[in-house]
Amino acid sequence: MTITTSSVKQVPWAARTRSGGGTGRLRRPRSTAGAGMYRPWWMPVLWIAPTVIVIAAFGVFPFLNTIVLSFTNATPLGGGGEWVGLANYERMLTDDNFWRATRNSIVYALIAVPLLVVLPLMMAQLVYKHLPGIGLFRTAFYAPVVASMVAVALVWQNLLNERGPINTALRSVGLVDSPVPFLSDPVLLLASAIALTVWKGLGWYMIFYLAALANVPSDLYEAAELDGAGAVRQFIHVTVPGVRLTMLLIAIMSGIGSLRVFTEIYVLGGATGGPGGQVQTLPFYIRDTALDPIAGNAGYGAAVSVALFLLTVGLAVLSHKFGSREES
Amino acid sequence: MSLNPLRPPACRRRAARASAGIAGLSVLLAACGVGGGGSSTSADGDSPAMAGQCELSEEVANDQPLSGEPSGTITFQTTALKESFSPYFESLIAAFEEEYPDVTVEWQDDPGDATFTQRLVTDAQACDLPDVVNVNQTTAYALYREGFLLDVSTKAPGYGDEFIPSIWESLVFPGSEDHYVMPWYWGLTGLQTFNTELMTQVGLDPAAPPRSVLEQFDMATTVAQNSGGDFYAFAANPAQRVPSDWQLMDAAVINEDESEFTFADDPKILEWLEKYAEIYAAGALPKDTLSSDVDVTQLYSAGDVVWGSTNASFLRYVQETNPATYESTGVASLLDERGTAFQEGQLIGIPSTSDNPVAALAFAQFLLSPEWQTTFVEDERISNFPSTSESLDIPKFSDFSGGTPLDRANEISVELATDAVNTFIYNWSDAVNSAVVSELQLAIAGDKPAAEALQDAEDAANEILANQG
């Protein structure tokens, strides 16, 4: 809104900054009485200072430190090390294990993210309506979220091993002759880890959708119904557009989560990241290369972390672009 | 008509972009908890001596023995002992504080899980290591390399006579002649435990267990042929067998000064890997344990494998969880060509960053004294040995009349203990282990020829060795 002379007159605190009128900038006059005298100029700074300090100490500084470290040969115990220029990045780009971990991380995200965007929405649709006993289902769907990932992964390990219930069931109904190698075949191991991530995330993202669904105006459903739209068309043309922003948010959040996956791989695939390390993801690779107190190379690990950061930002930007394109 | 009433305004899109950037940033920060500073570890007369980023006190940095009366507050950290042994440590600390009234000991216990070393590294980076800390050999070596451990030989000259000589003498890190750690309790590698009932079922004689690793592999083939898939020989993950299998076979794992791994050149190790792959393919080993960190004790206790863990302490767990399996457990030595068992010990170190090194050293010596070690190992729950000669002279280590598997394990252990040696490879770091085991897993799964996998493993291990300096 443009402030005109007339509007200035209507606002008690509006005043010319220069005496004599004219077109000078408007400024709120400094209070000299009442509560205003207790609000010195530095008061807002004081309010935001703790947050700024925390972000600077635990966000900005480590971020910058990581970038600096990536140009050194620092070690976990030994300290900052010496400047090595782009050596860590050169090593990273020629390291087959880095590319394997990158590929696994990308595959992980490409499979897990769509599932984590779509499935929780369908679950939210199921439990959104107020029916007797629906709270029980909401709680059941949310239960995996509050369980420890390590505990859940151990349960899955027991479910999926050669003599576990799943293989026993498959064999008993004659679907397979020999146990399915969920935990020893790299492809199946990666798929099992993705399934675990998705299963554990469903309830969490379902909550987001429940909140979003509450904001979709009910008259849109009524209008769609009058137009002859069935449940599926209402879902596609009312629900999905209504929660599109939430879908974008979940895509970004689950994408970031997928790129950070570690525990699922560690518990299901062991300390090497599956047989031969074939299921290692980037965080796994960073741990292997950077954190060993004897042989760890924090500088190299920092370089891989920067690569992970760029990959994450890239995924977030892609998600946003995709969302914007759909929007337009 | 558009059915989308929630088109975001431009500011929301900007916010989404910003949130994406911030979220990405958070990933970077979360993934990169690494850092550090200087790493000079010796005083040159002008600049202060450092360990990592931590400046060392003059009394630690100089080459004089520690002197003065113990005083101040010190922190003592054990590993996974608080749950079972609190009364022992509480009385130990009370006795120490009574003898040294100017010292207060604060006891803390680390759970000793997979991130134990990383927590200790974090403490070291923050110059906040416990004053007296229980460490394993790998972690001790890592701390030593960066100057985080007090030189016991210099600071307490003459100390060490009370320890079993073979143990004390073996605790010298590569490249050093001094002692930076003190031995506490220790166990043996060189035992085998096996389920006699399962052996009988597949036609093996429990009275004639394997005497070598390769003989055990041969017997594993028999298990695969005759078990009908109901049980297996042992867990498949080679992480639980290297490098100890190779050392038992007296193979050349690394050269003498630990500067280069040589295992790919030893035909015994190649034969070991080829046979390993054969028995895996034959179904002697549960396939889903090739890489997972499966708990062998649970597998054995459940009767899923013939051979259990190679140390005695797990027998107590089997006794508690499955008495029937425990009763049918046989125990024998498995020493292969080497002919001696290996010591594997828990150590006590005093960080050079300690604010009260005199009190810390006094407490460590108190803890490791024959009197208190004897009290510790007299506890029936302890299946380990003490590090002082005097503490070995108790009925527990001479009376094995019970005839139980635990008695048998203790009896054999005591027999082996006299000649046991510490063959620990300090440069067999977690990174080396991971690199080697990964290649072995590929060969065992049949995805790579054994010779090629061994060579790749050796190259990877040597590259790690070269990079660590």
UniProtKB/TrEMBL annotation, chain A:
Enumerate the residue ranges of region (Disordered): 1-31
In which compartments does the protein localize?
Answer: Cell membrane
Residues spanning the membrane? 45-64, 106-128, 140-160, 180-199, 243-262, 298-318
Q: Which domain of life is it from?
A: Bacteria
- Residue ranges the record marks as coiled coil: none
- Taxonomic lineage from the root: Bacteria, Bacillati, Actinomycetota, Actinomycetes, Micrococcales
Q: How does it sit in the membrane?
A: Multi-pass membrane protein
Keywords (A to Z) from UniProt: Cell membrane, Membrane, Transmembrane, Transmembrane helix, Transport
Protein name according to UniProt: Sugar ABC transporter permease
Instruction: Please tell me one Gene Ontology term that the record gives under cellular component.
Output: plasma membrane
Q: What family does this belong to?
A: Belongs to the binding-protein-dependent transport system permease family.
* Domain (ABC transmembrane type-1) ranges: 102-319
What InterPro entries would the database entry show?
A: ABC_transporter_permease, MetI-like, MetI-like_sf
Report the principal subcellular site: membrane
Protein source organism:
Antribacter soli
Q: Kindly state a single biological-process term from the GO annotations of this entry.
A: transmembrane transport
Pfam families the record matches: BPD_transp_1 (PF00528)
* PANTHER family tied to this protein: ABC TRANSPORTER PERMEASE PROTEIN, LACTOSE TRANSPORT SYSTEM PERMEASE PROTEIN LACF
From TrEMBL, chain B:
- Write the record's keywords in alphabetical order, separated by commas: Cell membrane, Lipoprotein, Membrane, Palmitate, Signal
Q: Which InterPro entries match?
A: Bact_solute-bd_prot1, SBP
Q: Which Pfam families match?
A: SBP_bac_1
Q: Which domain of life is it from?
A: Bacteria
Record-linked PROSITE patterns? PROKAR_LIPOPROTEIN (PS51257)
Q: Which PANTHER family match?
A: ARABINOSE-BINDING PROTEIN-RELATED, POLYGALACTURONAN_RHAMNOGALACTURONAN-BINDING PROTEIN YTCQ
**What is the name of the protein in this document?**
Extracellular solute-binding protein
Q: What is the lineage of its organism?
A: Bacteria, Bacillati, Actinomycetota, Actinomycetes, Micrococcales
